[in-house]
Amino acid sequence: MKRRRTALLSLTALIGAALVGLPASGAAADEVEQVKNGTFDTTTAPWWTTSNVTAALSDGQLCADVPGGTANRWDAAVGQNDLTLVKGESYRFAFTANGSPDGHAVRAIVGLSAAPYDTYFEVTPQLSVSGNSYSYTFTSPVDTAQGQVGFQLGGGADPFRFCMDDVSLLGGVPPEVYEPDTGPRVRVNQVAYLPAGPKNATLVTSATTKLPWELKNSTGAVVARGWTVPRGTDASSGQNVHSIDFGAYKKQGTGFTLVADGETGRPFDIGTGAYEKLRLDAAKYYYTQRSGIAIRDDLRPGYARPAGHVDVPPNQGDSAVPCQPGVCDYTLDVTGGWYDAGDHGKYVVNGGISTWELLSTHERALTARTGQPAKLGDGSLAIPESGNKVPDILDEVRWELDFLLKMQVPDGQPLAGMAHHKMHDEQWTGLPLLPSDDPQKRELHPPSTQATLNLAATAAQAARLYRPHDTTFAAKALAAARKAWTAALAHPERYADPNDGIGGGAYADSDATDEFYWAAAELYLTTGEKAFADHVLASPVHTADIFGPLGYDWARTAAAARLDLATVPSRLPGRDKVRQSVIKGADRYLATLKSQAYGMPYAPADNLYDWGSNHQILHNAVVIATAYDISGASKYRDGAVQSMDYILGRNALNMSYVTGYGEVNSHNQHSRWYARQLDPRHPAPPDGTLAGGPNSSIQDPYAQSKLQGCVGQFCYIDDIQSWSTNEHTINWNSALTRMASFVADQG
Ligand code: 9MR
Question: Which stretches of sequence are listed as region Disordered (predicted)?
C-alpha cells in the first residue's frame, strides 16, 4: 500500500497535507522519527544556531533571541543537520512555534545542509504570540544523508523572540492527498437565473453521448426536460463534460433543481431579486474596508470595530506618515481610504482601478439605456452619509478619493504633483489583527508615474461626476488631476520597485503607456480640451488590440479608457471606431464563452489562471456588457448575464465565489479582521465579498501544500491562509459591483 502511493507521488516534488489542527497521528509501524531531541526536555543539543542567535531552553521549549537588521531569512537560523531522506518517501514535518511580538514569520524548511542548499519543502507561517501547531506532508525528491531541518528567522528590521517545540520529521507516513468536495456533478448558477435570460448548466460525466435532463420546481414537479450536449474534455478542469441549456423555461420561482445522469444539482431561483441584493451587498463591502473611521454596528450588525490607523496606540496612526528612509523628508496625513484587501495597506495604483470601476458603475447608470442611478442612490447602502442627498455610491467612493488626493506630493517638493505609489506597514503582520491593533510603523513609498496617472484619471473622472453634487470638490479634484498629469509628463518612467514587497504588495508595473492613455481620456472626457484629445489620439494604445484573454486589471488599464471613450458622450474624432473596437473585443469574449463548456468568457493562455481570475472573468463580462450598452444587441446582454453563472457556482468546484450567495460559497477569504476561521470572535467576510479565485501560480504555502499540480479551475481553496487564491480586494469587489449592477438592470 505504502509503496504504491509512494510511486505515484514521486511524480511531484512535494505533496501537501493538512496544516494546523491535525489529530495526533496514529503512528503506523514503519513511521520513523528522523529528528533528534525535538522536545527540548533537558537540552538544546544537537540543534545549532547561527552565531547571531542565542538559543536556550525555556519552559521545555527552545527559545531563540533573533536580532533585527539582517537582510535574508537565512541570516538568522536554528537547525539540525545529518538527517537521512529517502527519495519518494513521504514525511510529516510538524512543530509548534510562537513569536513575540506578533507579526514575525519563520521560514521552516527541509533541505540540504551543504551547497547548493536545495530546499525540498518550505513554508513560511506568520507567528503569533500565543503560538500554533503546524503539520505538513511532503515527499522527498532525493536520497541524501545530509538532510536538514531549518527554521530561518532573519530578514526583519526588528529583533524578536522565537520559540519552538515538538519538532518532528516522521518518515514513512502515508501522504495525504487533498480532494475538494465538489458535490453533485450537475453544475448550476446556485443563486439565480434571470427569467428572460440565458439558463445554462454543466454536467460532469463519463458518458460520451447525450443524456436526458429534467428541471424540477420546488415541489419536485418536472417543469421542463431536454437533452445534454456532450462537450468532450474541458481543458479548464480536465473533466469530461456536457452542457445543458434550459433557457426556454422562463417562469419565476425559487428552489428549482436540475437533474441529469442520476444527479441533482444544487438549488437555484429564477428571478431578479438576488441581483438587486447582490448589487447592494457588493457595494456595501467598501464601508467595512474603510480606514480611519469606526465601523458602526447599527449600519453593519456584527461588523462594528474601532477606527483603524487613527493615532490611537498601538496604531502609529496615518496622520503624519513618513517616507521610507531616503525617500523624502516630509510626512503626510494619509488617513482615510479603504484597506486594499485582507492587509492594512493602502495603494494608489489599486485604489485607482477600484475607484474608476465604482464611479463607472454610477456613470453607466447615468448613460446606459438600462441604467437606473437611483439603485445605488442616496439611502441605498446604509453608510454614515446616507441621507445627505448625494448618491451613496459617490459618498462611498469619496472616502477613497479623499485619500488618493492626500497621497499627492505637496508643492515645493522635488516631485510635487506626483503621487506616492503606496503606504503600508514596515513589516508583514499576522492574522488575525484588527486594523486598530496594528502596531507597525507605516511608511510612504516612492512616488511612481503609474500612481500619479491613477490619481489623474480618477480625479478627472470624479470632477465630472461630483460636479452636480459638490462643485467645490469637483474643482479640487480637477485641479489635482491636472497637476498630476503635468507631473507624470515630467517624470514619465518612475516605476515602482518590483522588489518592494515587504509589509505590503509591490503593485509593480513597468509600462505606463496605458495609464497615460487612461488619464488623458478621463481628462478629455471631463474638460473637452484639445490637448488631452491630442494625447488620446496620438497614443499607440488608442488603436491597439487591448481586449486580450486575461482581462484588464490594476496593471493593464487601457480598457478603462477605451470603455469610457466609447460610452461617455464626447466629440472625440473617430469615436465610432472606438465603439466598434469594444464590440470587436466583446465578440472575441463571446466566442470564448461559447467555446467553454463552463460558459465563462475566459480562456487564458496555457490554461494558466491568473491571480484574481474571478475578477478578470467579470472584467471580460464588463466588455461584453458594454457592447450591449453600445449596440443594444441581445447576444451581448445574454453573454454578460451568463458570465455570472460561473462566479455563482457553475464551475468545476461547484461553489459560488461570493460570500453568502449560493448553497456552497467562499466564506474564509484571507483577511486580518474577517478572521472567523481562525477565531470565532471575528466575523466572516460580509455577504457580497468576492474571492480572488483559481490562481495557477499558487504562491502561498497553504495552497502549495494542497493544490500542487492543480488544473486551471481547481487551483483554489477556501481557506484563510491561501492569500494567493482566496483573498478579497477592493479591485475585485468593484468588478462584482459593476456586473451585479448590470445584471440587476436587465431584470
Ligand atoms: O492582485 C495582485 C496581483 O495581481 C499581484 O500579482 C500580486 C503581487 O504583487 O498582488 C496582488 O495584490 C495584493 C497586494 O499586493 C496586497 N494586498 C492584497 C492584494 C490581493 O492579493
Answer: 678-698
- Ligand 1 atom with the smallest distance to the CA of 554 is 4
Count the neighbouring beta carbons within 10 Å of the beta carbon of residue 39: 13
Cα–Cα distances (Å) from 582 to 9, 32, 244, 455, 539, in that order, read: 47, 63, 29, 25, 17
Contact by Cβ (8 Å): 610, 602:
no
CA of 347 from ligand 1 middle (Å) equals 10
pLDDT interval class at 412 (50, 70, 90): very high
| Antiparallel, parallel or unpaired: β 212-216 and 422-425 | unpaired
Residues 127-154: tens digit of each pLDDT: 889 899 999 888 887 899 999 999 999 9
Indicate the top mutation candidate among 343, 347, 424 to test ligand 1's pocket, ranked by most ligand atoms within 8 A of CB: 343
Give the strands of the sheet with 144-152, arranged side by side. Answer: 48-49, 77-85, 144-152, 107-112, 119-123
Quick one: which atom of ligand 1 is closest to the CA of 724?
21
In this structure, what DSSP letter does residue 262 have?
T
Task: Answer whether 410's CB lies under 8 Å from 467's CB.
Answer: no
Q: Name the CA radius of gyration of the chain, rounded.
A: 27
Q: Which of 340, 450, 552, 608 to mutate to test the pocket of ligand 1 (most atoms within 8 A of CB)?
A: 340
Cell of 124: 513560511
| CB-based contact 120:141 (threshold 8 Å) | yes
> 119: exposed, middle or buried (C-beta count within 10 Å: 0-12, 13-18, 19+)?
middle
Cα angle 563-400-404, degrees, rounded to a multiple of 5: 85
What are 308's strand-pairing partners?
Answer: none
Q: How far apart are the CA of 343 and the centre of ligand 1, in A?
A: 10
Amino acid at 3: R
β-pair type (132-139, 186-187): unpaired
- Pair 690, 700: CB distance under 8 Å: no
- Protein residue with its CA nearest to atom 19 in ligand 1: 341
Check if the beta carbon of residue 166 is closer than 8 Å to that of residue 119.
no
Closest CA to 94 of 35, 162, 152: 35
Residues belonging to the active site: 718, 727
In the numeric block, which cell numbers belong to residue 239? 473533466
Domains and CATH numbers, the chain: 48-171 (2.60.120.260), 186-271 (2.60.40.10), 272-542 (1.50.10.10)
CA of 724 relative to ligand 1 center, distance in Å: 8
Render 37-67 in DSSP notation, one character per residue: S-S-SS--TT-EE-TT-EEEEETTEEEEEEP
Q: Which atom of ligand 1 is nearest to the CA of 727?
A: 21
Ligand 1 pocket at CB < 6 A = 340-341, 343, 345, 505-507, 611-612, 723, 727, 729
The 10s digit of each residue's pLDDT in 369-393 is: 999 999 999 999 999 999 999 999 9
Mutate to test the pocket of ligand 1, among 507, 699, 726 (most ligand atoms within 8 A of CB): 507
Residue closest via CA to ligand 1's atom 12 equals 505
Cβ proximity of 155 and 71 under 8 Å: yes
How many residues make up the chain in this entry?
747
Cis peptide bond prior to 492, omega within 30° of 0? no
Preceding omega of 159 cis (within 30 degrees of 0) = no
- pLDDT tens column, 416-451: 999 999 999 999 888 889 999 999 999 999 999 999
Cα of 521 from ligand 1 centre, angstroms: 26
Give, for 342, the enclosing helix (H) or strand (E).
none
